[in-house]
Write a structure and sequence with these properties.
This protein is about 35% helix and about 15% strand. By secondary structure, the protein is α/β, with parallel strands linked by helices. Helix 3 (about 65-85) packs across helix 6. The longest helix is centred in the N-terminal third of the chain and has 21 residues, at about 65-85. The termini are far apart.
Length: about 280
């Protein structure tokens, strides 16, 4: 009797700028060894799931996202049962999407119910995009997919196993300074600096991630470099970002733009991977 192969965990949400398709390029520059793994903009967590580190600190400012991670880690069976109750219907989708506008009633929702809602909307919304308005309300329209897989039971159970030993923190990227130590691997995958004034998509949360945030991130990168951490950072290929990290090792990667309202603009673009001088 042939033993079934164990399902390999992969991101349970679609996330703008997700690194799953870039893993073959990024892994060429990973350090051979490190202590613990930190990811201050965890997003979909593609690199984390690829590495499967035994000791990890995963951080994100997005409260809904970190709630999903916590629920999968601690209540995956209840989450799966909740996800099975959803349906791929336009009117139903908008009813679910508007639930948090009724603030007092939404406060009574359990963490499992909120995680189920987030994952369902992520899988059924247009282009799999996570975007909120200035008030923090999810505002992506219905996606009209024929058969969206919003309850991938095998992967959710695999993600649960991958998260067992991980520490999950809701907070800004600077939070990593409280945990990062010498020889830790820290991977930054922030909202990218826009390539043009009309391409400024940074609305993963109600907080904007503009030039000042990019500069503050560079300063944190320098602090961790001084601390002896092993650092990797992804960002867009443009003069502003190149100047910020000019003292470090900058690698050019080729990526495919997967999320754009104009299909003609979805194609190969250049990105950078910044490394400090680890061996």
């Amino acid at each position: 009797m042939t033993r079934a192969l164990e399902h390999v965990a992969h991101p349970f949400v679609k996330w703008a700028g997700g690194k799953r398709q870039l893993i073959p390029q990024i892994k060429e520059y990973l350090p051979q060894d490190y202590n613990k793994y930190l990811e201050p903009f965890v997003g979909g967590g593609a690199l984390f799931f690829h590495l499967k580190p035994g000791n990890a600190v995963l951080i994100d400012i997005n409260e809904d996202l970190i709630n999903c991670y916590n629920v999968i880690k601690n209540h995956v069976s209840e989450l799966i049962q909740s996800l099975k109750k959803h349906k791929n219907d336009k009117d139903y989708y908008y009813k679910v999407r508007s639930a948090d506008r009724e603030i007092e009633s939404f406060k009574k929702w359990t963490d499992v119910e909120k995680a189920s809602r987030t994952i369902f909307m992520n899988r059924c919304c247009y282009n799999g995009l996570y975007r909120v308005n200035s008030k923090g309300f999810f505002n992506v329209p219905f996606g009209r997919y024929k058969n969206p897989n919003f309850c991938n039971e095998k992967n959710l159970n695999a993600v649960h196993k991958a998260l067992i030993s991980a520490r999950l923190i809701q907070g800004s990227f600077e939070t990593c300074l409280n945990y990062a130590e010498k020889d830790d691997l820290v991977y930054f995958d922030p909202p990218y600096h826009p390539l043009s004034e009309t391409a400024n998509f940074t609305s993963y949360t109600k907080y904007n991630f503009g030039r000042e945030s990019q500069i503050k991130l560079r300063d944190v990168f320098k602090q961790l470099d001084d601390r002896g951490c092993k650092l990797m950072l992804s960002n867009s290929y443009n003069d502003f970002v190149l100047d910020l990290y000019e003292r470090f090792n900058i690698i050019t990667l080729n990526a495919k733009r997967a999320i754009n309202s104009d299909a003609s603009k979805r194609g190969e673009i250049k990105e950078i991977l910044v490394l400090n001088n680890f061996e």
